[in-house]
């Protein structure tokens, strides 16, 4: 067996210890004689797995009691619609901050269901900055304020939670959740697709303040209504049981690692050394304002873009894979989620250095 250092933005690398445990438990989960995939979601074994996963997530994020944790399907993209279906009354308007491709997708979807007012946009800087808070045109009548704490494609991350007064703050945390501690009480609703820091694709996590439940529009389909998920412990229908179980194993692994403070320390160090090398290299370049560089996704360009294909091929041959930038921006991108070991970042930096030297 030879595992690579996989820098994919998602689906992304999972902790090896978790994969090994899932393998060991695959055919016969804890003497049940079956795999988790084969269990009834309503049986005592799976309900225990589900409850433990939620309890561990609550511990990790210190989720207050008046928040519900929902295990949903449809990816973060489905949340772009579920958020307005549940929180935006007909005829009302919501505030959206535009900091990149994922913000734009959320805005476009909300615009199909109501009014999405863009409070500020970093599009003029090609999404390499975050618009200064003083320039945001918040609407006093807005139903909520939506933003994307980490823009996965350009690698822009909010290092602070923005202050938006008493409006519910809604955050697409797909590519930053569990990478550092957050104060959940500052948010009305948090959502995240699983396939980066949570587990395999197919599961979507929603953390919602209880008072925001019960307000879905009347024509909201059952399976898009947060309240239905909350009332049925996310088991109105058959949930993605295996993904939920694997997420639970990841949460346990994170707790064993020392929880989110330990992850934050490790993630800051991983990203810090890669940015430091890029900036000092004279060959690679990251265009993002250093005040908002992502810890999770580090895009970079080569001084000579005709070498891109060679770089990717040689990196893959060295066991460093999935380094191509998103197709809409090109260049390179190294995603450094929780499960990327520090050794992977060291190997990448050493490869990048050799690549330049060989062309010296
Ligand atoms: N939001 C962000 C910030 C993302 O990074 C992604 C996926 N890369 C999405 C939304 C879309 O997620 P999904 O594929 O789960 O719909």
UniProtKB/TrEMBL annotation:
Aminotransferase class V domain segment(s): 4-348
Enzyme Commission (EC) number: 2.6.1.52
Compartment(s) where it occurs, according to its Swiss-Prot or TrEMBL record: Cytoplasm
Keyword Cytoplasm: yes
EC top class, as a word: transferase
Main location per the UniProt record: cytoplasm
Ligand binding (pyridoxal 5'-phosphate): 76-77, 102, 152, 172, 195, 237-238
Pfam families: Aminotran_5
Cellular compartments per GO CC: cytoplasm
Top-rank taxon, per record: Bacteria
Pathway(s) served: Amino-acid biosynthesis; L-serine biosynthesis; L-serine from 3-phospho-D-glycerate: step 2/3; Cofactor biosynthesis; pyridoxine 5'-phosphate biosynthesis; pyridoxine 5'-phosphate from D-erythrose 4-phosphate: step 3/5
Gene Ontology MF term list: O-phospho-L-serine:2-oxoglutarate aminotransferase activity; pyridoxal phosphate binding
Residues that, per the record, bind L-glutamate: 42
GO biological process, one term: L-serine biosynthetic process
Keyword tags: Amino-acid biosynthesis, Aminotransferase, Cytoplasm, Pyridoxal phosphate, Pyridoxine biosynthesis, Serine biosynthesis, Transferase
Reported function: Catalyzes the reversible conversion of 3-phosphohydroxypyruvate to phosphoserine and of 3-hydroxy-2-oxo-4-phosphonooxybutanoate to phosphohydroxythreonine.
Quaternary assembly: Homodimer.
Family statement: Belongs to the class-V pyridoxal-phosphate-dependent aminotransferase family. SerC subfamily.
Full protein name: Phosphoserine aminotransferase
Organism: Plasticicumulans acidivorans
The gene coding this protein: serC
């Amino acid at each position: 067996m030879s595992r690579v250092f996989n820098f994919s933005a998602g689906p992304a690398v999972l902790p090896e210890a978790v994969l090994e445990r899932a393998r060991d438990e695959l055919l016969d989960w804890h003497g049940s004689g079956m795999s988790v995939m084969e269990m009834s979601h309503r049986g005592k074994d799976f309900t225990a797995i589900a409850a433990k996963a939620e309890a561990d997530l609550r511990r990790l994020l210190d989720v207050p009691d008046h928040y519900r944790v929902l295990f949903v399907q449809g990816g973060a993209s489905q949340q772009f619609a579920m958020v307005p279906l549940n929180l935006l009354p007909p005829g009302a308007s919501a505030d959206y901050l535009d900091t990149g491709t994922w913000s734009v997708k959320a805005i476009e979807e909300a615009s199909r269901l109501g009014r999405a007012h863009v409070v500020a946009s970093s599009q003029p800087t090609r999404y390499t900055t975050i618009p200064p808070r003083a320039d945001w045109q918040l609407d006093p009548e807005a139903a909520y304020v939506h933003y994307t704490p980490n823009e996965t494609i350009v690698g822009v991350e909010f290092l602070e939670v923005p202050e938006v007064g008493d409006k519910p703050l809604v955050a697409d945390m797909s590519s930053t959740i569990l990478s550092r501690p957050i104060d959940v009480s500052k948010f009305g609703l948090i959502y995240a697709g699983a396939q980066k820091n949570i587990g395999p694709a197919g599961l979507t996590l929603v953390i919602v303040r209880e008072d925001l439940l019960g307000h879905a529009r009347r024509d909201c389909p059952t399976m898009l209504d947060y309240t239905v998920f909350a009332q049925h412990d996310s088991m109105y229908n058959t949930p993605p049981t295996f993904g939920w179980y694997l997420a639970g194993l990841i949460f346990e692994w994170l707790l064993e690692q020392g929880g989110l403070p330990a992850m934050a320390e490790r993630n800051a160090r991983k990203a810090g050394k890669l940015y430091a090398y890029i900036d000092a290299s004279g060959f690679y370049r990251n265009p993002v304002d250093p005040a908002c560089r992502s810890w999770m996704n580090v895009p970079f360009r080569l001084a000579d873009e005709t070498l891109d294909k060679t770089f990717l091929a040689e990196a893959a041959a060295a066991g460093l894979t999935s380094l191509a930038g998103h197709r809409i921006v090109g260049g390179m991108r190294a995603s450094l989620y929780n499960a990327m070991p520090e050794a992977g970042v060291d190997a990448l930096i050493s490869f990048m250095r050799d690549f330049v030297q060989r062309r010296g």
